Amino acid sequence: MAIGIPKKDKLLDDNQVELVYAHKKSYQEIINSDLVEYQSIYSHASPKRLYFGDNLDVLRLLATEPEICGSINLIYIDPPFATESHFLSRKQSKAYDDTLTGAMFVEFLRERLIWLHQLLSNHGSIYLHLDEKMIFHIKLIMDEIFGAENYRNMIVRQKCNPKNYTRRTYGKTADFILFYTKSDTYIWNQPKVPLSENSKKEYQYIEPETGRQFMKVPLHAPGVRHGETGKPWRGKMPPPGKHWQYPPKTLDEMDARGEIFWSKNGNPRRKVYLNEHSGVGVQDIWLEFRDAYNQNVKITGYPTEKNPDLLRRIIAASSNPGDLILDGFAGSGTSLAIADEMQRNWIGVDHSIEAFKTILNRFEHGIKPMGDFVKSSGSNSEEVYIQPTLFDQGASDQLDNRAKRLDNQDTKITDFSIFVPSPIPAQIEDIVKTWQGNG
C-alpha cells in the first residue's frame, strides 16, 4: 500500500526545497523593516562609499536609492563562519564576534541575502565565502532566494598548508565559495590559467616551415549529421556514427592555410598550435589562494584576511571596469582596495571599529602589515592563536611576484564618502578626524 503526504499538508511545492527552522521570518517581515538614518561625515563626488554600521540597516537604506538598487554587478561577502569565537587585538580591542550558530546564524545571513538579491543587477553575481559548518544550510537559503537555476559553482579553496592534524578526521585545509547569479545573462570574463608543463608535452610535433609546436586532434565529432558536416570531404566520409566538425568549405580553407595534418595513409587531423593556446579555463578547485598569512603576501594582519589574488580573480571574472561592487563584511578592506586597483567602484560596510580603522589605515598607507590581532576561543579553552604577519614569518626578503605587484599599490585612496548612523558615534568621528589629519 502506497503511503504519501496529503497535498494540503505539504509545506513546500513539489519542485521546491526549503530549509525550515525556528523563528524564520516571512519575506514581508524582512522587507517591511524600518529604516535607520545615516549621514555622511566625509564626502566625495565618487560613487565609492564606506559605511560604518550594521550591514542589514545599510542594505535596507541602499535599496531605497534608485541609482543603487538593481545596479550592483558583483557582491562578495565573507561573513562570520559560526565559529563561536571572538577576534581581538593584542591590546584587547574587539575586532568582531563570531558567536551566532544554528538557526540564528542562518536567519542572520538570510535577512541580508534577501536585501542583497534586491540590490544585485540582472547581470550580477554573488560570491559567498563560508566553511563546512554552515555551507550546506546556506546553499539551501541561496537556492530559495536566488533560485536553484542560478547556482553556478561551489568553489573549493585551499585555505592553508597541510598540518600535522591529530584529531580522528582528515585534515581540514579547505573552505568554500558559493557562486550564484541573478539571471542567466550574467557578466562572465572566462578566467584562464597557463598550460601545465605536462600539458605542453602533448604538443610534441614541430612544423618544419615555422618551427611551431603543435598537437594533432580529430576533425570529427560524435553524432550523425545529415547536413553539410555529414557529407564526404576530399573523398572521405567521417567515421561511422560521427560527423565533420566543420563544413567542407571551411575544411578546404583550413587546409589551404596549412592547418590540417595529413598522415601517410591519408587521414586528416587538425593542428592545434601551442603558441595560440590562451590557457585552460579555471576549474572549481582553487589551490593557489591560501589565506594571506599562509603565503608571502603583504597583509594588514586583520583576522581572516583573504588573499588579494583571490579577489582579483573573482572581480576580473564577474565584473568590468566602472562596475559597482559591494562587500557587506568589508573586514580588512581587501576587496575594496583590489576593486579600486582594478578600476571598479565599490561600497563597503562593516560594524567593527577595528575593521573601520584598518580600512582607513589601508587606504592611507597601502598594504602594510599590522599584525595586531589574535583569536580567542569562545569555549573555556586557554588556547590563543596569533595571526602571523609577513614579518612574523621572517619572509620579508622572499616576497613573490604577487606581493611585489602590490608594492606599486601603496597609494592613498581618498575618492570615497563615509557614512555613519545618526547620531554620529563619537569614536568613529575621532577616527575619521585623525585619518583626515594624516592626509
TrEMBL record:
Enzyme Commission number: 2.1.1.-
GO BP annotations, alphabetical order: methylation
Keywords: Methyltransferase, S-adenosyl-L-methionine, Transferase
Positions of the DNA methylase N-4/N-6 domain: 72-359
Gene Ontology molecular function, alphabetical: methyltransferase activity
Classification via InterPro entries: DNA_methylase_N4/N6, N4/N6-MTase_EcoPI_Mod-like, SAM-dependent_MTases_sf
Keyword Ribosomal protein: no
Full protein name: Site-specific DNA-methyltransferase
